[in-house]
Amino acid sequence: MAVSAYDLTGRTAFVTGAAGGIGRASAVLLARAGATVHCADLDTHGLDETARSIKEAGGTAHLHHLDVTDRDRLRQAVASCERLDVMAAIAGIMHSSPVLETRDEDLDRVLNVNFKGVLYACQEAARLMLARNTGGSIVAMASGAVDTGGPGLLCYGASKAAVVQLTKTLATEVGRHGVRVNAVAPGWIRTPMTDRHDAEAQAHTESLMARMSPLGRVGEPEDIAHTVLYLASDAAAFTTGQILRPNGGVTMPW
């Protein structure tokens, strides 16, 4: 495969959750590949830092301060793109509680961001791509939590499982229009989302996760960004409806 298959020069990408972690790494890498990147997030300071990184890499960034659960605001932001070739729906939140202690408001909050926010982004991107007949690539962010059970992960895992089903269903509906839809299900990645403990507890958790991986390490945001770039690019021209699992080999589903 020629390196040019990963070239996004002249294309436009929209990235939610772009203020940090996997979202920032993906936005910066898409820009380095040549795309003009629209960056969306609630974190204004984080967005500014992402824009600075993109500009230092020679790219172009447009910022949208928004909540992905606000369908109207998200629609306006996506519609502001002159064209749209890539949607990377990455924004998400974490919540942990035992099943028997999970409240309605906990489940609603996580589903609103992790599933509805991704759904809205996918809907608006697909509508624009179909209306302009340009084809395109939609990349949704799932999680390794869809493959395994884990204490406290009901809300998070359920929301990401819903993203998997959304990915497969939408792929069957828009493929004939040249729009590809795929998801990424990362393993343990060192991000602000996973850094929820004190230093000693965090080091213990990362050590445990590293021992579970055949590669002997946890992931970095850039590891996932490269998967996003692959799915966004022509290198993945024959890939749709798939769930890619960059997780260091922690899970190997049939």
From TrEMBL:
Identify the enzyme class: oxidoreductase
Record-linked InterPro entries: NAD(P)-bd_dom_sf, Sc_DH/Rdtase_CS, SDR_fam
Entry annotated with the keyword Oxidoreductase: yes
Top-rank taxon of the source lineage equals Bacteria
Its keywords, alphabetically, are: Oxidoreductase
Q: Could you say which protein family the record assigns here?
A: Belongs to the short-chain dehydrogenases/reductases (SDR) family.
Which named protein is this? SDR family NAD(P)-dependent oxidoreductase
Taxonomically, what lineage is the organism?
Bacteria, Bacillati, Actinomycetota, Actinomycetes, Kitasatosporales
